Amino acid sequence: MRDFVDEHRELFRLDFSQLSLFAILEAMTTITSDDVQHLAQLSNIELSNEESANLQQDLTNIVGYIDQLSELDTDGVEPTYQVTGLQNVWRDDTVVQHPAGREGLLKLAPETLDNQVKVPKVL
Amino acid sequence: MATINDIVNRIVRGETSAMAEVEAALERAKNTEEYHALLSLTRERAIERAAAIDARIARGEHVGRLAGVPFVVKDNFLAYGAPTTAASKILENFMAPLQATAVEKLENEGAICIGKSNLDAFAHGGSTENSAFGVTHNAYDATKVAGGSSGGSAVVTALDVVPFALGTDTGGSIRQPASFNGVYGIKPTYGTVSRYGVVAMASSTDTIGCFAKKAEDVELIMDIMAGRDKRDMTTLPDFFAPQKPHEQLRIGIISESMTDSVDADVREAVEAYLEKATSAGHTVETVSLPVLKYTLAMYYIVVPAEVSSNLARYDGVRFGVRADGAHTLAELYGRSRDLGFVTENKRRIMIGSYVLSSGFFDAYYLKAQKARTVLIDEFNELFKRYDVLVTPTAPTPAFGIGENTSDPVKMYLADIMTVPASLAGLPALSIPAGVNEAGLPIGVQLIGKSKADAELLAFAHSLEEA
Fold it and tell me: Active-site residue numbers of B?
């Protein structure tokens, strides 16, 4: 359903937006097991099969819930990304010693070698 | 019940000592272990600090406004003396290399941290059932949840283990457990308290606040913690200053928060509190916040999006737990994150990845940020005519342990009253408003204008005495 809506997104917007059909179709979003795998990959989490299956249902429910936001009219409204109104809070561009020092920070790493953090091969 | 000021005065006058207060608090922590409110004690460091403060008093030196007062911090604050786990496996043995600014400021005034409290892992949850290290029990009924995510801090305050405790509130994580355990809990104006050294969840709504049993104690702690910090660029210029209560506040009770879907006990408690306000000379009118019903949907788009980004740093490389046996870097990330996160962390990270995916960004994240503007505009309109807005803190008293764990959306609904102030960055205070017939506490939420934190506390204090 999601793919179908996506492919026909423009069509729905043009012809049926007044009828909220788009919103109704949106509300029927289901997360497939392929979606779960894709999202797990994007999130860098290696899931067990059992957890994948449970998450598929959970994520479908959550997306179903948040989809109701499409009912709210936000035409012409500017987005709010932060609420402080602060802009361009500068600091001096100087090197500051971390209180823990190099040794203290390296001690936190699971594996180190020659003052560097060690990881398995990248590829 | 003694106020924090009373405790400090008694210590300074020599009627008790920092050591006696700290040892008594540690003893109370031990005697209340069955609630599982604390994940660790910072006993050794606390004893050392108490001895140092007593020595200074003996020499007649100046000591701070919190000299010798024991407190507890939620285990997502970086603090010395115990690991900072965020109640997650991935940080199980993480010894913080620095302290949070909030903790430093309290210590500079002589306060003594005795332990670190339980939470939903990474503060993701509304019941403290998502902790990787076990559930915290409600202070009034052990079969009920503590609320969350700052459940442990609420419970140790309710049980008088310590006179105050710190929490974080991103969508209700201080206010809702405060309500469930019958104590005060404040979420200040966004940017009031530095978040340096606190595990980040959703950076556009994360705030730091506290729990206490008296409004004046909350005021004192916030007065000390508040203020601009050059290590947190989102902190506001200093504005917090204790104040006298206004004689007549214009109060608006939000009608959408008092519908039949809210427990009758809860509505009665809110109405009783408003009657008290009316008798004290304040005016109360019913007002409307039509967008309220959409705020939870906004929240569960904005927050997971920010969570997915903030939690990218937990990958088993530079710190934290690393999975064994990975042959490539990708495997190391994937397996470390699988074993290090609880299911709710994974849900939120994956929902965040979903709403930020190309093609969905406009429909979800951008839409939610526009809706957030609608919410802020509705609040601004109301605050032209009212000084304070009131809702229940939560639609129900504490629910049963295990009651909502199988349905994440049902669990999220517990946040419905608290997320609006979070998304708008407004100060909000949960006030204890008695117990229902079953003996479970109920909280009333006050929402103020931006930077009206002290005004809310002064108002709460005036009604507390009435």
Answer: 74, 149, 173
